[in-house]
Please model this.
Amino acid sequence: MSIRLAKTAGFCFGVNRAVQMVCDLLDAGERVCTLGPIIHNDQMVAELAARGVRVVDRPEQAAEGEVLVIRSHGVPAAVYREARERGIRLADATCPFVAKIHTIVREASAAGRTVLIAGDEAHGEVIGIRGHCDGASYVFSDEADLQNLLKTHPEWRETPLTAVSQTTLHAKTWDACQKILKRVCTNAVIFDTICNATASRQAEAAELAADSDTMIVVGGRQSSNTAKLYRVCAAHCGNTVFVETAAELNAEAFSRSRRVGVVAGASTPAGIIKEVIDTMTEILQPETEQGTEEKETVQKSFEEMTDEEALEASLSSLNTDQKVVGTVLAVSPTEIQVDIGRGVAGYVTASEYSSDPAVDLTKEVQIGDTLNLIILRTNDQEGIAMLSKRRYDAIAGWNDIVAAKDSEEILTGTVTEIIKGGLVAMVKGIRVFVPASQATASRGEPLEPLKGQDVRLRIIEIGRGRRAVGSIRSVLREERKAAEEKFWETAGVGDTYTGVVKSMTSYGAFVDLGGVDGMIHISELSWQRIKHPSEVVSIGDTVEVYIKGLDPEKKKISLGYKKPEDNPWTILTTKYAVGDVVPVKIVSMTDYGAFARILPGVDGLIHISQIANKHVTKPQDELSIGQELDAKIINIDTEKKRVSLSVRALLPEEDEVAYSTETAAPAEETPAVEEAPVAEESVVEEAAPAVEEAPAVEEAPAAEEAPAAEETAE
Model:
């Protein structure tokens, strides 16, 4: 068995600096007290206490003549002010990385920015950081906490924000939070303040854990960075043990492992780490010298082993006497009785049938069923055998995994964890690691949506320690290629498909049809003019489309989205006819009239001569933008997509003021009365040329002489 110690185990720069500062003060004959434990390690705190170092909770507790040491976590600005006011001598051991964060948030607050801090709100470092914010500040612990804050503070989308993290925050958590902030809060300035030593320590721990059978994490239980190291290791190694000192070591936890990794928190003294390594070596040395280590591994009963140990031992030493087939004789909610044909009564407990603690055996099996089992132990005197189906399945599952590697068989698994560098899928009861580069169809896609999902994958590598590596991407690409070939064999213009919006550009939206991508041009997204596809669809939307055009050579597909029945002109001609009175809303004005919205996508023109029963110099004299009124449809030109409206036609005849025939006649003839352009084109752009071609209206002498005609009428 090998024991490997992480290169970065032990004190980080900031912790070492703080401890050394206290020791230097003691060596210089100073009386020392620390504001809180100098580090989160009880053994080191006790060692310093033996030299006379006191731990105080508040500055005023410092005795006269004592030097008060600020620990590496840092403190709020108010502590410095209080110490100055009381004349207390300070020795500032704040970690330089933490002090940098203090400067960032202090300057951000002075500039009126809201400060967001990722970390543990109760941790001394976070309390200290927040104590340097003069303005608004908020703390969130992870992605979910951040999402909740964003929901309760929608104004942050526009508010200037500054975001920092606790130096010991889990790198994966901070990466996820940064993505959310960049997507939601465009005004956020984000600082990557995780300590370099912390990030490299976590990365090294993950790499070591992935290649170890057992991981020993050494450090104080109050240490934030040590706790995070434990979680990192546990995500990659199922048998991860947390100890504060060598006294907590349990030989059973590691003595059956071939490769043991050891990591230590940033506040763990070198002496404690050495003691742990020495103790482990002493425990293992007698067995190694006697050559009994391998023998003990085989002789240990399956009932005493973990699943991993049982799998390892069984694969190397299992014989036909340990594997049996049992026929179910009786079933209770907690136990199954089976006949294994050896003159003994066989029993399978619920925990050895399934890893699901809520399993109901009476619903799982019936009398007469046969089960593949492994013998855990036998009692010849009582004629009883204790058996396990769960452990047999684990062994059989591993054999299937190995066989699938050689045959390139596609397996199905369930994603149980998203970890740094990829994900873990349970396949036939075996943990299979899928690297991020092999987890999705293309690089850069988020992994979080896969958690809890069933996936199809291939085994691409079998590593040491019964490690299996899989690829989802190879299966997705193969399935996509097959779907693409089938599409081009069967697709035709007019066929309808259900697809998912994959991406967008300024000119259209690309839709995944399941193996191939097609594009909906922006003009095909809506009957109304839009400036960008995002006004109609969003990435991830499921849409119903139809094929407008196919180019097999260039592999290009044109898709249609808007439906003919939604054409506003179809709706208009179905719903209204010439002579109908319709409610309208004034949307724009020109010199020759006003445009009024009849339906979304259809505007009609009220010519200046049709606005009132009197002479109108300009439309603004009688109408205003946004005004709602009734108008009569006096003409519909479906070919040119124009509608003419009249308000004047709704006025009582007896109230009309006489118009000269020269004035009224051109109004019937002028194309300007004809209405609105196709929905894809601007109404004003269509209508304006029509007016230019109608000098009879714009230049008609009768219109200029209209006042004279009115005088005559009077």
Summary: The longest strand covers residues 370-379.
